[in-house]
Every structure is written in structure tokens, then in C-alpha cells.
Amino acid sequence: MSSPAQIRSHQSASVHYSPRTAALHLTGSRDGFAQARDFTHRTLDCWSLGHCGDDAVVVVTELAANAVLHALPHPSVDEFHARLRLTLRRSHLVCAITDPSDSLPVYPHSADALLEHGRGLQIVEALSEHWGWTRRSPVGKTVWAMLPTHHRP
Predict the structure, then answer these.
(1) Taken in order 54, 59, 62, 68, is the CA torsion positive or negative?
(2) How many Å apart are CA 151 and CA 153, to the nearest integer?
(3) Orientation of helix 53-66 relative to helix 120-127, angle to 10°
(4) I want to staple 94 with a disulfide (CB 3.0 to 4.6 A). Which of 75, 87, 88, 117 is the partner?
(5) Residue 11: its pLDDT value, please?
(6) How far apart are the first and last CA of the chain?
(7) Can you say whether the dihedral through the CA atoms of 113, 119, 124, 125 is positive or negative?
(8) Measured over all CA atoms, what is the biggest interatomic distance in the chain, rounded to whole angstroms?
(9) What angle do CA 56, 57, 59 make, to 5 degrees?
(10) Per-residue pLDDT tens digits of the chain, which is 153 residues long
């Protein structure tokens, strides 16, 4: 198993690790989503939380997609626009995406099964024990989800 320091040596300078926190700056490109998924899997493997990997990757992907679609309407691949932060707590993994938009996350209330978009936060809610958002100062917000770290029966 790799340590965070070993993973850091294989990543770009946009990655930050501490024993219980790992962060990655994201772009709105396909490569950015792939990096976020890979980063999440590798970080959880380092924390011996591989059993949480699938749910965490789905949550991270949905939160990042919402940030790119709604908070970063014209992303430039060369600039960092959002930040993924994974934090290990006693019994939870916190997956958070911070973006520069003051627009609140929109939770769809429509039951229309034919909608092409709008289910991301419903998926996040289904996979997490808690989710929410926090305003950032002076601008922006963080949308977060808490996933249990114990093994499910």
C-alpha cells in the first residue's frame, strides 16, 4: 500500500495531503474528472478504506459535475476552478467540493423519471448519511457529503 507521500510524488503540485486530509484542485475537463476519481480511490486505499471507494467516487463525481455545470459555466482547462477535499473523521469520510459560485445547490423536487439531468444530489443523498453546503467567505461555497467508513453487512 502506498503512503500519501508516495502518491504525492506521482501527482501534480495541485495535490495536498496530511494524515487525515487530502485535497486536489480540479478543472472542468474530462481529465479533471478522471483525476478526481483516481485521486479518491488512491487516497482511500492509503487510508485502508477501499471498501468505501465505489460510493465515494460516485459522490465525488456528482459533486464535481455539479460544480462544473452550475458554478463554473465557462471553465478553462488551464486554471483551477474547484477543489476536492477528502477528510477522514472518526467514523465518516467527508467528500467536499469548493467552488467560487455563490449559487446554492439546487435539489430537484420533480418526480419526472424522464429528466436527463438533475439527479446528482439525489444520488449523493442516497449514498451518504448527511450532505449539505456551506458558504465561503468572501465568495463561493462548499458542497459536502459524509459517508460512513464502517463495513456494511
Answers:
(1) negative
(2) 6
(3) 150
(4) 87
(5) 43
(6) 25
(7) negative
(8) 46
(9) 65
(10) 444 433 433 344 466 667 899 999 987 777 888 899 999 999 999 999 999 999 999 999 999 988 887 776 555 544 547 899 999 999 999 999 999 888 888 766 666 655 566 678 889 999 999 999 999 988 899 999 999 998 765
The three three-digit cell numbers of residue 54, written as one number: 465505489
Strands 141-148 and 82-88: unpaired
- The answer to whether the CB of 71 falls within 8 A of the CB of 99 is yes
45 near 1, Cβ under 8 Å? yes
Report DSSP letters for the chain, one per residue.
---HHHHHHHS-TTEEEETTEEEEEE-SSHHHHHHHHHHHHHHHHHTT-GGGHHHHHHHHHHHHHHIIIII-SS--TTS--EEEEEEE-SSEEEEEEEES--PPP-------TT-SS--HHHHHHHH-SEEEEEE-SSS-EEEEEEEE-SPP-
Name the grid cell of 99.
467552488
> How many other β-carbons are positioned within 10 Å of the β-carbon of residue 21?
14
